[in-house]
Specification:
Length: about 200
């Protein structure tokens, strides 16, 4: 049960796809850095005003990770849906699903409820949960990952969160492998999802 058994087998093509996804996310971050020349000033201002810094965000619990794995598996069952991870789901359904994901084990009824609102609800919820927690790549490893040239180096940097990181990257690779139908390339996924997995501390 859980993430380990769900994503234990990886083919050579899957590993290549994972590497492509990670590289796409890294390139997205590099572009983002170039566009944020004033980020340091904004961060200092937020800190002085008493606002919550991104570095204060909580780590994801094992319960939340397991629930995200359930959503990821169901997304894969609808993997040909156009705009997966790009099209937004109904906001009310997304909010309700996020609350469940972070508070209790998901039931078959929970899955049926959000499936009625389309797979985009699940994708939006996954992104929201990732955004509301500390990134999968630790803040102090941000520079290392951005400068990294290999997937192995990135996996070493994200330990001990690497088990869920591996599962999520493999999941995105599966989505990208169906680009001809869902219209979501690795570059699109790096832009829409990658920024929720790795970000610089403010």
């Amino acid at each position: 049960s859980g993430i380990k058994s769900m994503f234990s087998i990886k083919s050579a093509s899957s590993k290549k796809a994972e590497a492509a996804i990670v590289e796409s996310q890294r390139q997205t971050l590099l572009l983002k850095e170039q566009q944020q020349g004033s980020s340091t000033t904004a961060s200092s201002s937020a800190s002085a005003g008493g606002g919550k810094l991104k570095s204060d965000m909580p780590e994801m619990s094992k319960l939340t990770e397991d629930n995200l794995a359930v959503l990821m598996k169901t997304v894969e069952n609808n993997i040909n849906e156009e705009g997966v991870y790009r099209v937004s789901g109904d906001s009310a359904l997304v909010k309700a699903l996020v609350s469940k994901v972070t508070s209790k084990p998901l039931t078959s009824q929970d899955v049926m409820d959000w499936e009625a609102g389309s797979v985009h609800v699940a994708c939006s919820a996954i992104k929201k949960v990732l955004r509301d927690h500390a990134p999968l790549v630790p803040y102090n490893k941000y520079s290392t990952v951005v400068a990294s040239k290999s997937v192995d180096a990135i996996k070493k940097a994200v330990a001990p969160a690497s088990q869920f990181f591996d599962a999520f990257i493999l999941h995105l690779a599966k989505v990208a492998a169906n680009e001809s139908k869902n219209k979501m390339s690795r570059l699109n996924l790096g832009t829409t999802v990658g920024v929720n997995c790795i970000r610089e501390s403010e």
